[in-house]
User: Fold this.
Amino acid sequence: MAPNELHRLYKRPPISDQQKRRELSLRRQEQSRRDAQLQARRLASTLFSLSSSQTLEETSEPDIDLVSEPQPDFQPENESVSSPSDLDLDVRQASKLRGSEARKWFARQLMLPEWMIDVPDRLSHDWLATRSYITTDSRQRNCQCHHFPRLCPACLTASGSCQSYSILDCIFHEMDQTYYVIDMICWRGYSLYDCTAEFRFFWLNSKLAETGACDPPSQYHRYRFSLVPIYTCDQSGLHSAYAGAVPYVKDGLLFYNKHAHYQPGNTPLALVWKDENCSQYVIDTDSKGQVPSQQQVVLELLHDGKLITSDDPPVVFGFLELEFTQKSGLHPGNLLRFSIGNGGLHTVDGKLEKADLHYFGKSNRARAFADSYSKIMFQYSVRHSPLRIDDLVASISSSDDEGNGPSDVEMAV
Amino acid sequence: MEVTQVLLNAQSIDGSVRKHAEDSLKQFQEQDLPLFLISLSQELSNDEKPVESRKLAGLILKNALDAKEQHRKLELVQRWLSLDSTVKTQIKTCLLQTLSSLAPDARSTASQVIAKIAGIELPQKQWPELIVSLLSTIHQLPAHVKQATLETLGYLCEEVSPDVLDQDQVNKVLTAVVQGMNASEGNNDVRLAATRALYNALGFAQVNFSNDMERDYIMRVVCEATLSHEVKIRQAAFECLVSISSSYYEKLVPYIQDIFNITAKAVREDEEAVALQAIEFWSSICDEEIDILEEYGADFIGDSSIPCFYFIKQALPALVPMLLETLLKQEEDQDQDEGAWNIAMAGGTCLGLVARTVGDDIVPLVMPFIEENITKPDWRQREAATYAFGSILEGPSADKLTPIVNVALSFMLTALTNDPNNHVKDTTAWTLGRIFEFLHGSTMDAPIITPTNCQQIIRVLLQSMKDVPNVAEKACGALYFLAQGYEDVGPSSPLTPFVQEIVQSLLTVTHREDAGESRLRTAAYETLNEIVRCSTDETASMVLQLLPVIMMELHNTLEGQKLSSDEREKQGELQGLLCGCLQVIIQKLGSSEPTKYAFLQYADQIMGLFLRVFACRSATVHEEAMLAIGALAYATGSEFAKYMPEFYKYLEMGLQNFEEYQVCAVTVGVVGDICRALEDKILPYCDGIMSQLLKDLSSNQLHRSVKPPIFSCFGDIALAIGESFEKYLMYAMPMLQSAADLSAQTSGADDEMTEYTNTLRNGILEAYSGIFQGFKNSPKTQLLIPYAPHILHFLDSIYMERDMDDLVMKTAIGVLGDLADTLGSNAGSLIQKSVSSRDFLNECLSSEDHLIKESAEWAKLAISRAISTTEAVGLEVVTNSCIITNIFTNICISMELGSDFVTEEWIFKVLQMVGNLLQ
Assistant:
């Protein structure tokens, strides 16, 4: 029977510094575990979808393009090349991937804007940003390709460890050897996926400068980083974005819904728009740089002969007979090029009813995806009844009139 | 063998005689245990024998039944249970006889041994007649036997848990005890034994306390006992009241006024031992109400939660003056005595708890006392006033306290510099620390510390660090909280201009000759740690300069040779402090890129020092160095691989340290750090680590709190090495499954068990998460398919139990996603068929907790993908023909997977793990 000889703490804090050290260590470990877990989930999960997308039902191996290509600029210097068949990757491993495999992998991580077919409601209220697009190479007509040079600043600065990595969405501009950063997905291990576009741009602006990445190149970073200017999406902002001078070749404007989180894949919450004034490449060109007389589209072949876009869920544009596919040696998963005949595209209430497709051949092997629905429709409208800058301006001024208040929308060029 | 003589010799002052006797006893025990135990019990019961030999016989007997170490204790229990029943009966008879002995020591020893045997046998439903045989004749017994019987009951209640006795037995015990306590009992020894027995028996009285009449009776008897003429009885009765205040808080309404009256009288008039318990009663009521009000604040609306009766608030006008009076009863030099505990300390502590309970209301009741006494010539009055002020700084709002503190601050600074009395200075420095702890920080609307007074405050504190050790220690403490308040102040800290001087002063303190007194050196290093933790980019260079200084200090501790055991202990302590400091520095410098590179040039040297510290082998150092190494691994990343060959053996030693479970726990965490740093480069060490972790799980010696982190560590390893985890699946999975089943069974127990169950679940789930993510996109994912049904069943059971905490919810829904993500179509149909996956997911999706929502959205994505592929592929997934719910089936799975490895020993290990998980 122990008598109650309770001595309470006298002039002592209830938690000792030693206990505090233990707890802080535990917290750091928990945070690291969570980061590792999130990283595994978020970044590698798209690989899974690559290998198990609808097109691959009958092929156990994902259709990986092993064309040897010049190595992209973002490779870390001292890492060995991992086996391309090893799909169990995280971003650090993925940074070792080469060629179209890397292209596929990273493209899956990216938010891909849809093409603006209609002016969205409340453009100046809920739609936050526009910014111009840069082309790096006139032969590369698929805008998605320009996204690929991504990099990890930790690798750039010759870090021994990529414990905390950053992922930037940027475009490499060959002429001035600069990466133009258009978005930030992950900063020093802190994920910005769940943050609104508004916040991401704020963070991007404030953090990138801190690292010195915008400074002239040194031995630790071969290339300069630069921010793409962001404008408020009012009359003058739109004007600056549309007509303002930039050190790079513009290729259209990008609009971001300011409430939207970063979402890998095609999203209607980011939109691209262009006309002849702000882009050299309004109408797609063919491999020789010529504008073809008929619009060309790239679609993906399914095992049942359906031809689909890269959207999720995909839009079915047409159908190939089994006999024809066998005869032409086509396989499910192939990306096929078609031209749109005089029959054009028929839509009823915004839904595609009928498309006059003519088979053209297999697409360039560098392609990772089929065209998206919005891209096809945009290209179609450019050739027939384009959406003009006046339409955008009109939309903003009409909603300004309604809103009366100052515009809280941002825009980038 | 002449037992008596040997027992007497074993207590001889002559070392060689003693040694010889001890050896003979040991030999006797090894040769013939039953006879040995019988001989001892006979010795104890024999009134002809000397008391000394009888006492020692009883003590050895007691030690043959119980041990501190859990595994040794279990061995002894088994050993006793396996003795021949005639032997046991013979021993018990002797013991019961001894209760009638005229020698008080013999009776008391026998009581304890009987209780130990009861503690072993009653849970086994053996010795059912014990209680009845003790109590049947209690009314006719002579006083000394009655006293021994009651004492036995008291020890018995301490040994066995309440569910072992049925209500009828409880009623009998309580009746005997309460009657023994009654004022009508003329014999003080009997009454004291009964009162002490009640203290232990209170835990058995749930039912009786729910009955108004029985409770009234018990409370009346206890209160009467507080008025006994015998001080020990009064003290024991107040101890009962303290215990009642926490166990039966909600039953106290009818008695609280009377209890206040008797406690107030005791605090003012009674002897200190009694007064301390009377104060403790109110401290304990504060504890209860603080807990309840905290639950109210967290707007937790549990059905079983106890309402607050606001006893403290109601008693406040009388309670506070009573406590203030106690503050004037200080002892001289109490601050120099580590173990001191007196009425002034207890009163001030209680005042602090009252302030936390009632908040602002206490301030007007205490302020007049402070104002009246703080300038008095008698140091007692100044100290009491200061102590009262320091005590009420936690609880009341900043709005209420800030204006007062603004006035008091400069007075305090002057007192700390000029007051002639050490005691006053000690309390003043402590009060300053409390001011900074509770009223200074970035969340405060009106800052206490301004650019105008900051310099003066720091100057006074640095000056006080040269004062006597106890005052200097409090000054370090105040500086600690001063720094802490600037923790998240941003890139530019008001502390910056002073950091250099502060660091220098603290280092000087650590070198003081008398730094060993009043834990001054510890306080100085702890404050240094806090300064480092709160450093900003502006002061990063100073932290970097501090690094080689601390390294040199650590290096110096390694140079000493041939230390005495006392010196060795001091060296170990100092190494612990230095390793702790290095850990904090590493963590700080490692957290930003520029400082990390500057720091990494020292990594090799630091690691070399840590390895040498390990070689010195002292447990506390071990832990601190281990923590520091975790931080180092985090900072160095994959570079850490080069230290592994040398470090590995210490890692293993850490994992084997069952006794100091904190060391083991810390090491498990470091394994996680290393996994993340090395990734697949940890593979060569995984066999050793995994086998040690599995041993840890099966161990009955290792504290249970370490086991959930071990499961999480499985996940860390799997995530690091990916499909190479394959070879451990057959070991890890049955462990996980069995632990999962166990956690499903234990839910619904008390709060503590629910908390542990949730920690366990979280560990298990983190393991699954890591394993699934580790195997993702591997051709070997099909190895995981057989486990999926059980995991889904586990998730169902967690969901249905409805006692999971947010963390478990987050991890659980994440596992659902991981399972879908990795198994794809194979998981799709299983998930669709599972009982509650959909509801669970929907609930998590609508959760307000950001982390849960995040995990749920991920899971939703992964599941929808898995399900859509299921449909497209049209695969007929093998459905779970059986939901695996017991351990044996789990083991069968591992047999299918690799029958070569599943031995009986292995099955035994799993069973052992399950058995020990809850101990």
